[in-house]
Write a structure and sequence with these properties.
Blueprint (H helix, E strand, L loop, with lengths): L4 H6 L4 H12 L2 H8 L3 H15 L4 E4 L2 E4 L1 H22 L11 E7 L1 H18 L3 E7 L8 H7 L2 E4 L10 E9 L1 E6 L11 H6 L1 E5 L11 H8 L5 E6 L15 E5 H11 L1 E5 L7 E8 L6 H16 L1
Helix pairs in contact: 2-3, 2-4, 2-5, 3-4, 6-11
Pfam family, one: LysR_substrate
Protein name: LysR family transcriptional regulator
Family: Belongs to the LysR transcriptional regulatory family.
Amino acid sequence: MVRPPSARLANLDLNLLVALRELIRERNVTRAAARIGVSQPAASASLSRLRRHFDDDLLVRSRGGYVLTPLAMQLADQVEAVCAAAERLFATGTSFDPGSTRREFTVLMADYTVAVLGRRLSAELATRAPGIDLHVRLVREAFSADAATTIRLIDGMIAPPVRGFDLPGVRSVELFGDRWVCVVDAANAHVGDELSLEQLAGMCWVAPFQPDRGFPGAAPLSRQLLLFGMQPRIRVRVESYQAVPYFVAGTERVALLQERLARQVAQPLGLRVLPCPGEPEPIVERFWWHADLDGDPAHRWFRETLVGLAADA
């Protein structure tokens, strides 16, 4: 007889989820025990049970400590998402006091957004809600491909509107706007005070989130290049917006970058910020969350805080 899913779940010790998360985070039984608030033998017993359940060692001793097995690395993101969802579920109530709450918010964003909002958000939480933990997950290439699943497992994500976010039950609110600019090294003698599309097409590029071939529709920069009818010579590909200017500095390469980020790094890296030719789309960053969280006062406070910080950014 096949047991229903709810019966299988009822027979699981869900405390093992917390143990699994901390064991994967710490890669050390003693430190994991301290984070959970149990003895080292109790944490070792949990690890033994997890090993039996998954039929895998999960943690393997190596020189200088433990390393994760391939299965443990595969479980890492899943257990973070499941624990975060469980914490949100049991933290939900009819009232919310940011000064006394104990809660973790998990937000997916690009490192560009961290550069714009990170310092303000960190200071605001430290001052007004010192008991809140923040888990920032950085955007990965083509992350919108699994947006329908991801948005249910986190508190929200900050991203521009792209195909794949128009989903049933997904809400969003505008945070801030920006525009694309060109960045070149200040000593690049081949570039004047402005660039044409023809010049851009002939230059070597640094570009974020570009695959080996073609352009993913979800990447904002890719859409701009397609609008320009351009297939540039990309010499450096990076999985980060903040890394882009470092690979432009000291070279004759060019890149498109968000102006807010470009202005932050131009002087320290010796770059020039130039207008983007053509008619690039404006950048509009929005906060996205699932409608299941609409009635959660803590989540409402968090997203209102984000909107307020973005207004002053």
